[in-house]
Design brief:
- The structure holds two protein chains of two kinds.
- Chain A contains twelve helices and four strands; from the N terminus they run ββαββααααααααααα.
- Chain A is mostly helical.
- Chain B is globular.
- In chain B, β1, α4 and β2 form a beta-alpha-beta unit.
- Helices cover 45% and strands 15% of the residues of chain B.
- The chains are: A mainly alpha, B alpha/beta.
- At the A-B interface, α1 and α11 of A face α2, α5 and α20 of B.
Chain lengths: 305, 448
Amino acid sequence: MSSATLPAKMPPRWGHRIDDDRRVDFVGYLFVAFFSVPFFLFNILPVFFGIYVGFTRWSIIGSPRWVGLDNFTQAFNDRWVWVGFENVLLYGLLIVPSVTVLGLVFALFVNRGYPLSGLARALFFAPNVVSATVIGLVWVWLLDTQYGLVNHYFSFFGVGAIPWLTSTQWSLVGVSIASVWWDLGLAFVLFLAALQDIPSDLTEAALVDGAGPWARLRFIILPHLRPVLSMVVTLQLISTLRIFSQVYVMTNGGPGVSSQSPIYYVYQVAIVRNLFGYASAIAMLLFIGILMLTLLQRFILSERA
Amino acid sequence: MKITSDLSKQLLRGVNRREFLAGTSAAAFAASTPFIAARPALAAGPVEIVHWSWLAASDGEVWAKMIDAFNDAHKDKGVKIRMELVPEEQYITKVLAAAATGKAPDFGWGTAGKGAGMARDEVTVPLDDLAKKADLDLSDFSDASLKASRYPKYDNKLFMIPMDLMSLQPEINLDIAKEAGLDPTNPPQDGRMLLDWAMAMTKREGGKVTRSGIMMTGAGVQTTVTWGIIAAQMGFRRASDDLKTACVNPEAGKQAMQWVLDLFDKHKVSTRDVTDRYKAFGTGQGGIFWTGPWTLNGYIGQKLNFQTSLFPKVGSTLRTYSEMGGLELYAQADKGRLDATMQAVKWLSDNSFLWTTVGRGASPRKSILGRPDYKTAGAPWAVRGAFVDGMAFATEGEIPVVAGPDFTIYSGGNFLAKTLDGVWAGQTTIDQAMEQIQQQWQRGLDEG
């Protein structure tokens, strides 16, 4: 290779010179524009417009009418907004620990390199690449009270037909089962990647010192997984608080409002009742709730880490 | 790809990367905005009337035939209808959005009484003058159908051309009736007889209902509409005639809630475990199922042995659920399109014999109902007749106010259904539910 000296500063090859030292690389801006313009139009702008609409009464037609904090006052007094928040916390209690624990267990299993672990890796991750709508439709069939496979297999153990999706007592559980199955893949992959990053000399040293599987898990594996654990719990928490597709497909928020999530209620208020201002106000309250919970959860986990 | 054409070589010769990118960007922009190129071409073709419909399954199939028939009849007349399917639950929002951008469809399918908001916002167009101009004979329509097409709170103008009338009537599984020793020529006519039939048709295993005498679901539309019909029969009114007071005679509404609960818990003739009521009745898991004429084609197709009868008088007055489908016109920047659209709607109404014999519901047109072949065309009268004759007492339609969707009794997910579901599940008391309904509905009426 030639050792010829390079100029101190290479000019951009396709740039427009605006003075001696600065060049504007239009091609670069063009590439950025392909993403940033739609991002601004369809993400940033709607966010600010949504905030504005939250302070108005508006049904798409005509101009939004400013009503100040009326929508927020109404939302605080709306029983079904609170039911939605209660439900989503219950969803969180059911889904987040299940996905985290099962994702870790499956990752530990595959990481051991048992026969067929390659196939298991594909199988565990597969549900995550299917859309939530498809997952919902499949589980509607599986959980049907009369002809569903789940109840069919339960009946072998003398368990009577459980109305997973049609009773107020079980509907949250029914939707959560489908959600766990769907979300598991991502947690599994993240844990697996983190497990493969743990230096093998640490576990080998532990083995030499006579540490058993439980001791290795507790003192070596889990401490190394903390950052990923924090990420998985955070992602899962946000995903659960925004749960919509499964609720929409599987129960329509019912029976009654027993499985209704806040986002589903926002959808109902906006799209079914055409109260866009009110729906925006509820969405903003949900955003604030998610933000606070996420910050709290990250604070707790990072403190421990 | 190897470039062989001299022209291509010429075009690409000397094009630097910046020019190439600029060219491809322009091409991409043009490709992403096809209307720029498409507009002149569209203008050069025949007049195209855009129609939005949410009718699906066998309904949609027959309606598509109606549109095809119009297009065939107008092949050489420079006009055609382009039909687009829009999901029912998003229909109104999409029409509003399209109207807000000045691109509303010319006409669409609506349910009478549910479009008060669109009438208020001047998205739907008043039709009295347009119908007159198009020579559509409004005197040929039943008074009830015209009344249902008007919004008293919005100058009582006509906002819909009625296309079909539907009611909920019982369908009876004849195999189950025969097995239970019942006489199908004398179906239930009152509440007592209905329960006797239901008892005889119900199958239980260890106290658990495995076949419902009366097909019901644990929540959703079937229980809500049943409550609505029975409550009306018992004297409950969702709104006073002047649309000022909600929940007239709430005690009757509460009695009706108890009547529905008793089907599950006291008489044990229904089970909450049914999820898909249509499928359950079709597979013999129910003896009596009150539903609408939209089920006929499916059950006839699967050779179910059934007949229909008139809804029994459970309360003091005979009433049942009523729904009217029709066509509504949406505001256009080019007012001339409204006349052309009304001409198309007139043709569809004048030629709605197929739709109201094979499609669904009874005809709102006196001339069609009076045709000698009206009873012999389409599905057999034994299954279709109750849906036509029963319109005489099908009075429980929509409440024509902006908050109308909160009032409808044929819904599994609106405010009413979700409130009542709490009662069926034992989470809400009957009194609490009625109080909530009263408050919300009163707010709805006050809104206009």
